[in-house]
UniProtKB/TrEMBL annotation, chains A, B:
Upper classification of the organism: Bacteria, Pseudomonadati, Pseudomonadota, Gammaproteobacteria, Pseudomonadales
Protein name: Pyrophosphate--fructose 6-phosphate 1-phosphotransferase
Record site: Important for catalytic activity: K148
Cofactor(s) demanded: Mg(2+)
Residues bound to substrate: T149, V150, D151, M197, G198, R199, E254, Y304, L305, Q306, R307
């Protein structure tokens, strides 16, 4: 017996990861996919962009319906970007018209009427523009942003999924390395420098400050991009700390600049011939201490380790990353458009959070700065207010499963669906 | 009723941590102290040297009997050196006679007749010399070495406590960072370099190779100090890997040297004026790739993070670290002298281990090299034999307790006992 033909109301969804990945961005993906599977009468397949938005432009759509329930659930425990991400930024509608047009073309060809974009400021701007574009072209597209950034710089949301886990990693790492240095300092290394991410804002560096629960505990000094590097004041403080505690641990943000507005990492304090130094800011700071104060040093550069360290992710961060993915789909099926789930902190002494909603137009391209009141008077540590804000974000552990002594991270099939368009697409070179 | 006076048979013990600390050296301390407390008729107090052997020389003895049972148990979950360590090496009996004499003087003054020295090659040599010295002076001192080194270079023992946890850290880290790089490589970073410890031997770099369970998984290239750095061959391999997999992850040992026998970290491939480059080998390797192949890179320097990362310590390593501490005391009360507990691997397909005994004279100053058969033909990865040796050492997790989102590590009172000697001691400047 032939089935009755019903009018089509089920449309596919497109999900893409954008920009630098995090330890928990795949939890947002799991939130999207698992929730979409609960609405089979509204959402058909969830296609994921291979390498982010490039997947849509090149019509490389990964069919997530080919993945088992278990594989999708395992995404919650898997760092990196499971479908690939990219740093490609769409410019204004005028400048990047061809790209926007191509996106709509691909969406049409694959019956995609839901667009979920998982990223930071730039991506929210892109999602907003795509929404405007679709409206202009009268293509019914629901565009929902999903916040993600280790930089913690999206506005309106209390914090950004991805940040809490880096925060936990850097706080744990400086506590541990600090204990190492403390035990050797009487006859060996006296100064230890840890370089962390944060080119524009000191959120990650600030998070390291959580490790200092009592005066004298590492990190002793934090260098923020929000404060101009004052060499004399810094060296005086290092010397004071070493004399008081026997050693000094320093967390430096990669974005620290000197009075001329140059990144210390590039300014080079050593080379009289003006050669750019290899490496980042940690060796520059460490060498400066050695040259001026004579203390033996060691330094570490956490780099990608900090944002991929799923093994030590924050449970709170993980739950929030999942929740924004889930909420994005719920918003979409309820008919919202051009919005982004945000995290609202509940009032009161005990930390609590809930999901709320912000318009993409209000989020796009607005950068949330670290409040001035979060940095201590001397510029070298965080305040109690900063601690109250940051501390809840690193609470809880959510360990991955281990196999053979190593985390057993999800490996998806990532099956790309056959292309339907005859036209290939080539990006214009920037 | 007055107690009957019995002849004194209970003597104190001295325990010292030596050289670079590890994530689990305090577990050995816990093994020593908890076991000693089980023999109150033989061992009185366990004094720990403040900052290692310097604590004995300066008569700074920490009374571990002042620490609660809980505090000592918590040492199993605490990185760094709980009593302080140092890099002070005692030379030959002739050269350092005054120091050896001083040690015996301090031991006599505090009724110390057990000496437990927790360290690497140098320390086993020192423990052996102290034993000889005591014999010469007819002072009845039981000297027991306790193996510890992230370098894994002590002979006779199958492996060294401390190594397994670094091994696990570097394998987990390169797996995680590799997933990050893989997801961004199509439009961003293509080459990632992780610098790990190992100035003389490639054990730690080799351990990173455990993350490669299938061809193509990170790390793609390992640079060992056992292989002369061949720039052309290396660059060719990087290019090949990027072309095949889209990205390339590299683990480099800090000890890698060029054909002239110079550390790459110091050789500087960039600076025409011969200025020493700041920083280690990772930036040198990364910049070389950029200059010659044009690939965008990132690099991380794990430094102290790798050897203090108690949060991701190997359970096997932890258990072995505890076991050698425990065995050291058991050997002592059984009347053994000038020995060190070693770890014996049982024969057969399933990994098993037990504690055995080696003479300090056979351990002292013998460096265990990585077998040639552990490095693959092309020099860029580990062999199956190496994997079989290393894999059991990273098995199991043994998470610390968390408080406020951070590991709650033990903080001891470290009460120094009153000095009994009238003479102060000053080290001769080297």
């Amino acid at each position: 017996m032939a089935k009755a033909i019903t009018p089509k109301k089920v449309y596919n969804a497109f999900y893409a990861q954008s920009g630098g990945v995090t330890a928990v961005i795949n939890a947002s993906a799991a939130g999207v996919i698992e929730t979409a599977r609960k609405y089979p009468k509204k959402i058909g397949k969830v296609y994921a962009g291979k390498d982010g938005i490039l997947g849509a432009l090149y019509e490389n759509l990964i069919d997530t319906s080919k993945e088992s329930k278990e594989a999708i659930a395992a995404l919650k425990y898997t760092p990196g970007g499971a479908f690939g991400s990219c740093r490609h930024k769409l410019k204004s509608l005028e400048q990047s018209w061809a790209e926007y047009e191509r996106l709509i073309e691909v969406f049409k060809a694959h019956d995609i009427r839901y667009f979920f974009y998982n990223g930071g400021n730039d991506s929210m701007d892109t999602a907003n523009k795509i929404s405007q574009m679709a409206e202009q072209l009268e293509y019914p597209l629901t565009c929902i942003g999903i916040p993600k950034t280790v930089d913690n710089d999206l506005p309106l949301t209390d914090n950004c999924p991805g940040f809490g886990s880096v925060a936990k990693y850097v706080a744990v790492s400086i506590r541990e390395a600090g204990m190492d240095v403390a035990s050797m300092a009487s006859s060996s290394t006296k100064v230890f420098v840890l370089e962390v991410m944060g080119r524009h804002a000191g959120w990650i560096a600030a998070a390291a400050g959580l490790a200092t629960e009592k005066a004298g505990q590492p990190p002793h000094i934090i260098l923020f991009p929000e404060r101009v590097f004052d060499q004399a004041k810094f060296l005086a403080r290092v010397d004071e700390v070493v004399k008081q505690y026997g050693y000094c641990t320093i967390v430096v943000s990669e974005g620290v600049k000197n009075a001329e507005g140059k990144f210390l990492a590039e300014a080079g304090t050593k080379d009289a011939f003006g050669h750019a130094q290899l490496g980042g800011v940690a060796p520059v700071i460490a060498q400066l201490v050695k040259d001026k104060l004579g203390y033996k040093y060691h330094y570490a550069v956490a780099d990608y380790l900090q944002r991929s360290a799923r093994h030590i992710a924050s449970k709170t961060d993980l739950e929030q990353a999942y929740a924004v993915g889930k909420a994005a789909v719920e918003f979409a099926v309820k008919g919202h458009n051009a919005v982004m789930p945000i995290i609202l902190r509940q009032k009161g002494r005990t930390y609590g959070w809930q999901i709320s909603m912000a318009r993409l137009s209000e989020v796009a391209n607005v950068e949330r700065k670290m409040p001035d009141t979060y940095i201590s008077q001397d510029g070298f540590h965080i305040t109690a207010a900063c601690r109250r804000y940051l501390s809840p974000l690193i609470q809880g552990e959510a360990y991955p499963r281990y196999e053979n002594g190593l985390p057993a991270y999800a490996k998806l099939k990532n099956t790309v669906v056959p292309k339907r368009l005859k036209t290939a697409f080539t990006l214009k070179k920037a």
